[in-house]
Amino acid sequence: MNSIRFFLVAGILATLTLFNFIAALRGYQSSMEEADLLLDSQLLDFARLVGRLDVTNNHDELRLGNNLAFQLWQNDEIVVQSYHAPQEPLAEFSNGFNFSNFDGYRWRTFTRQENIPGRWVIVAERTDLRYVLAENVVLESIMPILLGIPLIGLLIWFIVSQGLKPLTTLSTQLKNKHVNDLSAIDASNARRELEQVIQSINSFMRRLNQSVEREKRFSADAAHELRTPISALKVQLHNLSQEMDMDMDSDSWRQLEGGVERMQHLVEQLLTLYRMTPDKFAENCLQVDLYQLCENVIAQQYTLVENKNQQLELMGEHCFISGEEFALETLVSNLLSNASKYTPEEGSIRVVLQKKADCLELIVEDSGEGIAENERERIFERFYHNEKNPNEKTLPGCGLGLTIVSHVANLHGARVSVADSTFAQGSAFKVSFPVKEL
Predict the structure, then answer these.
(1) Which domain range does residue 237 map to?
(2) Are residues 51 and 108 in the same domain?
């Protein structure tokens, strides 16, 4: 809104300033032309006055100031002259106005032949001084306009601000809306020009609300409805394995179990992604001991690590951040399961918590095959798989784990990055929580 206000004020003020400048320039030119005519008329009167001087008296000490000079010639000889006039003629002996240079200045001259034969009157006025009065008059008329430009600018700013007030009010209403408030904006008191804008916004918010509700219903209903048959399927598989003499190590049986586990994992991740919304996050924020949380998640995930004889280490100290406990557990759990998944048997995993001047870092690194630099941005995309280890026997992924990690980090104002681990090979996922969240 400020950019629109500034553009309008600057545009109007620039237009007025340009108009005033052109008007002042034209006024100056006209004023100087009028002043020139007036001063030439005075110079003509001065010549007439000099022509009436009594040449019988001595006028050697006649002083008229530095801006005027005259000569009275009779038969090519000076009869009378001002004290600083030169001995040479001030101008040619030709009736009319002209310009001349003497005494280090530029002079406006007027030559006039008297009725007496052989008598010429030449008068002169310094051009640099003759315009001082005219310029002062013109500048005094222009200065109020120049000084008034800031005042005009403030007045224009006030008028434009009043004109944009309905837009400011609308902007404030939209900004103050709660994250879940997609209700229509009241247009009863709106200006007529904004009715169409408000109607368009309300229409957009209505469509957005319908889309959000559809997505919520689909995610929640699909996750909840799939949980029951998946649980029943797992029970039946267990009963089938107990009742029938089946080869539990066969590829068919492992694929069947893996498919059920993949389906259950996908459902749980979908439900988790649904729960990680900004409104639910804000409602459940509290002080969380990140070190204790990591210990709890490691205890829950330890079976995955133990099955592959992997070495798991937790380093750091107790530290607190403001966040949603379930969301942070999901973040650490996904990072840890991802590290275990892509780390070979008897590999190493390290979880590190370290405080820095501007952030608190959570690092989960492994000794797996690592992630190529050209894939490090894409791994946070939904349903993206790193196919470097296609033969892993751990829990298959559904492509949402790192997407949820990135989403949870954004909710906490944190930044997720991927680099090489400190092991001989492998990857390190670093989540940097800002200090203001501590």
Answers:
(1) 180-275
(2) yes
β-pair type (311-315, 348-355): parallel
pLDDT in tens, the chain (438 residues): 567 777 877 888 888 778 877 877 777 777 777 878 888 898 899 888 888 877 666 555 566 677 888 888 888 888 888 877 888 888 888 899 999 988 888 889 999 998 888 889 999 988 887 777 667 766 776 677 777 778 887 888 888 777 777 777 777 777 777 766 777 777 667 677 677 788 888 888 888 888 877 777 776 676 667 777 777 787 777 777 776 666 666 667 777 777 777 677 667 766 665 666 666 666 667 889 999 999 999 998 888 888 899 999 999 989 888 888 888 988 999 899 889 988 999 999 999 999 888 889 999 999 988 888 888 888 887 766 655 544 444 445 556 788 888 888 888 889 999 999 999 999 999 999 987 644
The residue written with tokens 């052989």 in the block is 118
Q: By C-alpha distance, which of 423, 353, 322, 339 is closest to 386?
A: 339
Residue 144 lies in a domain: no
How far apart are the C-alpha atoms of 245 and 253, rounded to whole Å?
Answer: 12
Token pair 């005009």 in the structure block, residue: 152
- Asked if 350 contacts 361 with a C-beta cutoff of 8 angstroms, the reply is no
Give the C-alpha separation, 360 to 57, whole Å: 106
**Is 0.85 surpassed by the pTM of this model?**
no
DSSP 8-state assignment for residue 81: E
Orientation of helix 401-411 relative to helix 325-341, angle to 10°: 150
The position carrying tokens 């001065």 is 46
Instruction: Judge if 257 and 282 occupy the same domain.
Output: no
